[in-house]
From TrEMBL:
One BP term from GO: polyphosphate biosynthetic process
Active-site feature positions: H446 (phosphohistidine intermediate)
Gene: ppk1
Catalysed transformations (reactions): [phosphate](n) + ATP = [phosphate](n+1) + ADP
Name used for this protein in its record: Polyphosphate kinase
PTM section of the record: An intermediate of this reaction is the autophosphorylated ppk in which a phosphate is covalently linked to a histidine residue through a N-P bond.
Keyword Kinase in record: yes
Matches recorded under InterPro entries: PP_kinase (IPR003414), PP_kinase_C_1 (IPR041108), PP_kinase_middle (IPR024953), PP_kinase_middle_dom_sf (IPR036830), PPK_C_dom2 (IPR025200), PPK_N_dom (IPR025198), PPK_N_dom_sf (IPR036832)
Domain Polyphosphate kinase N-terminal: start-end pairs: 15-120
Pfam families: PP_kinase, PP_kinase_C, PP_kinase_C_1, PP_kinase_N
Residues of the Polyphosphate kinase C-terminal domain: 343-506, 514-684
Length: 697
């Protein structure tokens, strides 16, 4: 789906606050859960995505603002004119409203599931036949995995795991039981993550039943606490979210892997930044928990529904109901690039573009596997940011080493929330003989590039692929990203320069083709925008089309405002954060912005500059955020092939056409939908059709 981003700010401020803009993005995710044109089970999964996004937001962004408050700083200059303390309060209010909205949406979806004979029941609705199944399931699978802590008499409250869900249990003890000092006895039950959250119960006729693990445990409370004498027992869900920023120590005796490993482990004991609780919890239990956990006013305390960790809805069972799911698509081949023969032979003749998931990511794996076996290949250099849980990329690189190739991997150990997986793969590759580089101190390596050197006719020839996304087979099925395959020797040589910079980073390299952060991207983009301004003044063709995840750098936004005031037409497709305010007279009336939220996560970065009729196009790993421009290693790669240029323009315009029937986001309401008689224009489906047609022409 696409939404046109309105001017939500009625003040004279020139920028939206980054955090509030992100919350607007997550509101668009929530809209998908309410959109009746989205298949019913997929709507549940969007609720899960909304919740998962919110968890990560609190771990990182909210935690960062909270640190600003605790440091006694205002933060107005880089928070878009709002103080950090006011921002925390506004975030909390927005999240409370969004959480309430998500609960209302969930109730509507459950009613619609009933019409499809799908019932999510709770512990009060269990039939006798279901009871036998549940008790057996509990004894066999759940009970051995439960961690139950009696907290009523503990002097020190246990440390709760980040984002884990707990049932806070209160037992009102019988009057004649003198075991405990108080009549109220408290316990915590950790909801085990190793068990599916949704348990499918035996069906009855054409009716299907599901019980959530939380309710299954509630149903078995008497079994768990059978040794206690109580009059009544109740259980309510709670969850805390902790500060997830990594604090890396400066101990020179430790290796970088050891430092990151230690910092990741310390994350589990980070300060709590959000406490979510079932709003129906009794006052005594809530007060007991807040006091024992030391939750204070700088933390976000959010009353929620009966169930937390709604991110688990991302894995809601399909139940064999393909009619309630998105229609599956089979990734298409790239026209003219067969998986049967040698990819080197084909890429030697021309460049090829892969647009996953519309086209098969298998080309990347095939290319590396071929390189691992090819006796002509002498070396492989590749950057890795996030690997799949079972990575064919990693196994191909290890295979290459075993075949005598020189393999160098720059692996980013600080890829947020993937640190542990990357550390594990780093250690595995290192033990197999892969040479690892850990980048540059103070700079996260976010670029996605690979260069392969091959001996042909007694000369080294370079082959490369550069991507907007991670070399990850799992995310390539759900993230849209471009990957360019090329044998352009100048580009291959400049990728090698980037790797040289990783190893000798006091020498700043010069590039004639690639645009590389942190040294060149900002000024290069300024220059490209200035060229469009000058062309507009001179009556030449001008225009800017940009597609990216986030646009938050104020200086870059100012440059786009300058272009708008000069009359340059600017189209922006920004999936997430957008601090730019479009359509403001005298500032940005020539800028339009849309945001696409749909079946696949929009992830590519694409920059198109009209350039007086000789269009310049780049694919990039960089968003227009301060961190990407100034504090990371990023690569923007020029596109020289005319056919690929046209393909990128086509795909941008197909996405832009979604704006024809866009939903409008207002500052408060989330539900301004198109008319019911309007068929939704889903650009992602149209893009798949586009590549199908290319194959047939």
């Amino acid at each position: 789906m696409t939404e046109k981003i309105e001017n939500l700010n009625t003040t004279k401020n020139e920028y939206r606050n980054r955090e509030l803009s992100w919350l607007q993005f997550n509101a668009r995710v929530l809209q998908e859960a309410e959109d009746h044109s989205v298949p019913l089970i997929e709507r549940l999964r969007f609720l899960g995505i909304f919740s998962n996004n919110l968890d990560e937001f609190f771990k990182v962004r909210y935690a960062t603002v909270r640190r600003i408050v605790e440091a006694g700083k205002g933060g107005r200059s880089f928070l878009g004119g709002i103080s950090a303390s006011d921002l925390l309060e506004e975030i909390t209010q927005i999240v409370i409203e969004q959480q309430s909205q998500s609960l209302r949406i969930l109730q509507k979806i459950r009613k619609e599931l009933h019409k499809e004979n799908i019932y999510i029941i709770n512990e009060t609705e269990v039939t006798k036949a279901q009871s036998e199944f549940i008790l057996d399931y509990f004894i066999r699978k759940v009970s051995p995995a439960l961690v139950t802590i009696m907290i009523g008499e503990l002097e020190e409250f246990p440390s709760l795991k980040d984002s884990a869900a707990y049932l806070a249990v209160r037992m009102v003890m019988k009057k004649d039981d003198e075991t405990f000092q108080s009549r109220s006895n408290f316990a915590l039950i950790e909801i085990p993550k190793v068990i599916d959250r949704f348990i499918v119960l035996p069906s009855k006729g054409d009716k299907q039943y599901i019980i959530i693990l939380d309710d299954l445990i509630r149903y078995c409370l008497n079994n768990i606490f059978s040794i206690f004498k109580y009059e009544s027992i109740s259980a309510h869900m709670i969850k805390i979210t902790r500060d997830a920023e990594l604090d890396i120590d400066s101990d020179l005796s430790r290796s970088f892997i050891e430092k990151i490993s230690k910092s990741v482990k310390n994350r589990s004991s980070g300060d709590p930044v959000r406490f979510v609780y079932d709003k129906s919890i009794d006052a005594e239990t809530l007060q007991f928990l807040l006091q024992k956990m030391g939750i204070d006013t700088t933390d976000s305390i959010i009353p929620g529904g009966r169930y937390h960790n709604r991110r688990d809805y991302m894995k809601f069972p399909s139940l064999g109901r393909n009619d309630l799911l998105y229609k599956k698509i089979e990734p298409l081949p790239i026209k003219g690039l067969s998986m049967q023969g040698s990819l080197f032979d084909k890429i030697a003749d021309k460049d090829y573009l892969l647009y996953a998931p519309y086209q098969s990511f298998s080309y990347v794996v095939k290319f590396l596997r071929e390189a691992a076996l090819d006796p002509k290949v002498k070396s492989i250099r590749i950057t890795i940011y996030r690997l799949a849980q079972i990575s064919h990329i990693a196994s191909s690189l290890i295979n290459a080493v075993k075949n005598g190739k020189k393999v160098t991997v720059q692996i980013e150990l600080q890829a947020r929330f993937d640190e542990e997986a990357n550390i594990e793969y780093a250690e595995q590759m290192q033990s197999e003989g892969v040479r690892l580089i850990f980048g540059v101190s103070g700079l996260k390596v976010h670029c996605k590039a690979c260069v392969i050197e091959r001996l042909e006719n007694e000369k080294i020839k370079r082959y490369a692929f550069i991507s907007t996304g991670n070399f990850n087979e799992s995310t390539a099925r759900i993230y849209t990203d471009y990957t360019l395959f090329t044998s352009n020797q100048k580009i291959g040589k400049e990728i090698n320069k980037v790797f040289d910079f990783f190893e000798v980073n006091y020498k700043i390299k010069k590039y004639n083709h690639l645009i590389v952060s942190p040294h060149y991207t900002r000024n290069a983009m300024y220059h490209l925008i200035d060229t469009e301004i000058q062309n507009k003044k001179n009556g030449k063709p001008s225009g800017i089309r940009l597609k990216m995840n986030s646009l938050s750098d104020f200086k870059m936004i100012d440059k786009l405002y300058q272009a708008s005031r000069a009359g340059v037409k600017i189209k922006l497709i920004i999936r997430g954060i957008c601090c730019l305010m479009p359509g403001v007279k005298g500032m940005s009336e020539n800028i339009e912005v849309i945001s696409i939220v749909d079946k696949f996560l929009e992830h590519p970065r694409l920059f198109i500059f009209e350039n007086g009729g000789e269009t310049k196009i780049y694919i990039s790993s960089a968003d227009f955020m301060g961190r990407n421009l100034d504090n990371r290693v990023e690569i923007s790669c020029p596109i020289y092939d005319k056919d690929i240029k046209q393909e990128l323009i086509d795909t941008f315009e197909i996405s832009w056409k979604d704006n024809v029937k866009a939903r409008i986001i207002s500052g408060k309401a989330l539900n301004k939908y198109r008319k019911n008689d309007e068929e939704p224009f889903r650009s992602q489906f149209k893009l798949y059709e586009y590549y199908q047609q290319k194959l047939n022409t």
